Amino acid sequence: MELLLDVNNLSITFKSKEKTVHAVRNVSFHVNKGEVLAIVGESGCGKSVTAKSIMRLLPEKTGRIMDGSIMFDGKEITTMNKKELVKYRGDRIGMVFQDPMSSLNPTMTVGDQIAEGLMIHKGYKKKKAREKAIELIRQVRIANPVHCCTKYPHQLSGGMRQRIVIAMALICEPDLLIADEPTTALDVTIQAEILNLLKELQEKMGMAIIIITHDLGVVAKFSDRVNVMYAGEIVERGTLREIFYHPQHPYTLGLLKSIPKLDHDFCEKLAVIEGSPPDLSILPKGCAFSERCSHAMDVCDQYHPEQFDQSSTHQVSCWLTDSRASRAPRVYSITH
Amino acid sequence: MNKLLEVKNLKKYYKVGKNQVLKAVDNVSFTIYQGETLGLVGESGCGKSTTGRTIIRLSEATEGEVIYQGKNVHKLNRKESKAISKKMQMVFQDPYASLNPRMIVRDIIAEGLDIHGMYKGKERNEKVYDLLETVGLNPMHANYYAHEFSGGQRQRIGIARALSLQPEFIIADEPISALDVSVQAQIVNLMMDLQKKQNLTYLFISHDLSMVRLISDRIGVMYLGNMMELTTSEKLYSKPLHPYTMALLDAIPVPDPDIESQKEKIQLYGEIPSPTNPPPGCVFQTRCLYAKPDCFLEKPILKEIEPQHFVACHLYSKTALRQRKEKGEQFYKFIDRYGKKEINEHIVSWEN
Ligand SMILES: Nc1ncnc2c1ncn2[C@@H]1O[C@H](COP(=O)(O)OP(=O)(O)OP(=O)(O)O)[C@@H](O)[C@H]1O
Ligand SMILES: Nc1ncnc2c1ncn2[C@@H]1O[C@H](COP(=O)(O)OP(=O)(O)OP(=O)(O)O)[C@@H](O)[C@H]1O
Ligand code: SF4
Ligand SMILES: [Mg+2]
Ligand SMILES: [Mg+2]
Fold this sequence. Notes:
The complex is a heterodimer.
Chain A: E1 3-15, E2 20-32, E3 36-41, H1 47-54, E4 63-72, E5 75-76, H2 82-88, E6 93-96, H3 110-122, H4 126-139, H5 145-149, H6 158-170, E7 176-180, H7 188-205, E8 208-212, H8 216-222, E9 225-230, E10 233-239, H9 240-245, H10 250-257, H11 298-302, E11 308-309, E12 315-316
Helix pairs in contact in A: 3-4, 3-6, 4-6
Chain B: E1 3-16, E2 20-33, E3 37-42, H1 48-55, E4 63-68, E5 71-72, H2 78-87, E6 88-91, H3 105-109, H4 111-115, H5 121-134, H6 151-163, E7 169-173, H7 181-198, E8 201-205, H8 209-215, E9 218-223, E10 226-232, H9 233-238, H10 243-251, H11 257-262, H12 293-297, E11 303-306, E12 309-311, H13 318-326, E13 332-335, E14 343-346
Parallel strand pairs in B: 3-8, 3-9, 6-7, 7-8
Antiparallel strand pairs in B: 1-2, 1-4, 4-5, 9-10, 10-12, 11-12, 13-14
Helix pairs in contact in B: 5-6
């Protein structure tokens, strides 16, 4: 398998007058060509910030990459100048943002916005670019694409906008698509169709995808590998099966347990992970999850857990997986 | 059960372009009973938010009535309006747009309290801290600006704001879509707790069918501005009657890789019609696997097929039921359209 994206020891902070937020801490992961990596985790854990940093789209004044490297196809992204970046953004890397309105220009018709990418990056003439845009709008399952092309973003519903943003990200047939909650606003029938479309494109063009989602159903349906993030760090990563059937980190386990199943009893309460994630402006000394963890040991509050290998593809940052932690319940069972 | 809210023939049309009309909500009627949760599901753009916004009068209805505790909400004087606006609150879909980025959280949450002149000074602060804790945030967060929070955290702030006036009725428009699972569970549990404690009534809009199922007593399924099916959660999931509902239930991704990999791939089917140009007859006709000639000509109306089970579909018209009976079909069989093994059998009582 060929390496496409290699992120190493990435740390990102947001500075304001009062405080510094350590949004992403020492994060390393990679994406191979043509594979789908899912990033899951609590809201605020740094998924979007990680994704945006790959596009170098952090807010310039406050957000900063403090450390680490992001290699895309052998080139370092963190040190690129604006001119070089343009070649990557929207062309070789496409992005679907969590908030679709922020990536749409309110003064331009959506058809022109989609076609623009082709004109800038691929040198298409307007007419041809439009034709391709219309074709893509049809593929993301919007009725009457010709008519839709002439609309402005505010005239569309949330779900339609989301599909337009997906079309924009795909128009240049990127090598890597970063999709931040791409189907959250859509209903499941359309979601299924869009995910199938993405999967098809991925197989056809060998496109790699990083999908950020809170829907573990989508993860199960769609991805090859999974990164679980918590409080700015990757706490567990593994193949799809390793994460769903052999979760080792208590947080991963908690996540899997808190999903409602269709056979869940009515009005029965869902399992929750109590508490809330720590304030990222005050770095915890030990494990960031220890306060909420029902398995926490003394060591957890004091020392940051090392990363332990479960297999060549499965890594966990939790003291429970240390061989010295013999007292701890090390085998979790998960019933589906 | 007492009726809290009645929506009668609600229509909301938007003028778009020169002479086009977009029927965002087209003749929708339903009742919400005191203390219950009515779920509203359906595909994006089908008019869920518009229904919610029209009820609470954030936008004016084109036609139809909204009756809240016997009073027509759309025909109140200013004083009555203000009183009712305290009782009905809304949690919005878009946590990015619904919070003012230049206000600190304390003032966002206390906005309603201030408008109604309810708490002052120290009491106001304490109320805010209480609310922050209720929604799982840290009281310390009171002095932060909304833009400093992630999407999920912002939505919690929105919920805290809605709870501040101790409303009776909350319209929650996709309150959990932006949250991830562990937090969704917290919020749903929290909303269920609050409901019991404060006898709240919810209109819960969502497209997450497994969550809606958990929190709702009854569920309405909308499609292209129309109500297609309305029944108890239990019936909706065990015995869906409308072809669109069945398609929805079938498409829910299961959080289990083995089950997902065994699922047959759904092939694309049918045009998704545009809301400015809905198809004649049944609005689902373009994507429906069971469509028959009637469906292209006449719009089915929402009818009570069985007690507490309302469906708008020609498959359940009197003639269709009679014909099936004459052919000796005891059951109406829906064979899963993706060729899965399961077969849902639906018994429909002939008397209706
Ligand atoms: N522009 C910003 N200024 C200051 N802090 C920020 C900014 N953007 C993000 N943060 C902080 O960085 C952290 C990570 O945020 P991020 O948006 O990546 O979360 P997320 O994992 O995408 O969450 P969600 O699932 O809610 O979208 C949060 O604690 C957030 O408060
Ligand atoms: N102010 C407006 N002007 C014109 N059309 C509008 C306006 N607001 C909404 N619409 C249209 O009305 C229809 C219903 O929109 P609505 O926002 O109610 O859908 P929804 O079911 O909430 O969808 P979503 O899941 O995307 O939020 C859509 O086709 C939308 O484009
Ligand atoms: S009325 Fe006809 S087209 Fe509409 S859902 Fe029923 S069978 Fe399908
Ligand atoms: Mg995010
Ligand atoms: Mg909506």
